[in-house]
Design a protein that fits this description.
- This protein has helices at 12-29, 42-54, 69-80, 92-105, 118-124, 142-152, 168-179; strands at 59-63, 84-89, 111-115, 130-135, 153-161, 184-189, 195-200.
- By secondary structure, it is an alpha/beta fold.
- It is built from seven helices and seven strands, in the order ααβαβαβαβαβαββ.
- Helix 5 (118-124) packs parallel to helix 6 (142-152).
- It is 41% helix and 20% strand.
Length: 210
């Protein structure tokens, strides 16, 4: 019996293309970081989609929503495997943009948009709460978030960090922390602005004593 693929919400692809155009135009017209969209590249979106599906990551956390472009890629993939995306953004302006885009996408039922500081969200999240974490926010904050990031990521879970080559110097302190952690295996993937991947060691099965 042939299993049909999950239906793609009408207009999702055109919405992605629209956000790509608007994001590029907006960022070319303003130097004010708080008003820039700073979206991921399309090939990064495709890569994230494949990673979510391949790892069956049903509990996805995104830190740094912006206008919601990257969350659409994550949510489309999560929806296909009955998963959900939690995305956190501190800017009220960007939360409003993302909320409208999620409503238009048809993916809103599987997206939880949180208007808060990422540190607070991490602190109140349970240990092992997420299968997949995508980090695309304030890079200077990452080292301070690391203890909580490693705690909320389940054993076997995957952390993906954007801008690993475009802003390598800014990310260097964080990358050094993760690389030094024996629980994590890492890789740098030259897609888009560079993606730093770190997978947490799986739990060891408990063997009965003989």
């Amino acid at each position: 019996m042939k299993v049909s693929a999950p239906e793609v919400p009408d207009g999702l692809e055109s919405l992605k293309a629209e956000l790509e155009r608007l994001g590029a135009a907006n960022d070319g017209a303003t130097a004010e970081r708080s008003r820039r969209m700073l979206n991921i590249t399309r090939d990064t979106g495709e890569f994230l989609s494949v990673l979510v599906r391949a790892t069956l990551a049903r509990r996805v956390l995104e830190i740094g929503t912006s206008n919601g472009y990257s969350a659409l890629w994550l949510a489309e993939a999560a929806r296909a495997i009955d998963g959900t995306v939690t995305t956190v953004e501190s800017s009220e302006y960007k939360v409003e943009l993302a909320s409208r885009n999620f409503a238009r996408s048809g993916l809103a039922p599987c997206i939880m948009l949180v208007h808060d500081d990422a540190a607070r969200l991490l602190q109140r999240s349970a240990e092992g709460a997420f299968d997949f974490v995508f980090l695309d926010s304030e890079r200077a904050e990452y080292p301070g978030w690391w203890p909580q990031l490693r705690r909320v990521l389940r054993p076997g879970g995957l952390l993906v960090v954007d801008n690993a080559t475009s802003h390598a110097e800014q990310l260097a302190p964080f990358v050094a922390l993760v690389n030094a952690d024996p629980l994590f295996a890492t890789s740098l993937v030259p897609i888009g602005n560079g993606e730093f991947l770190a997978v947490k060691a799986p739990s060891r099965p408990k063997h009965a004593d003989h």
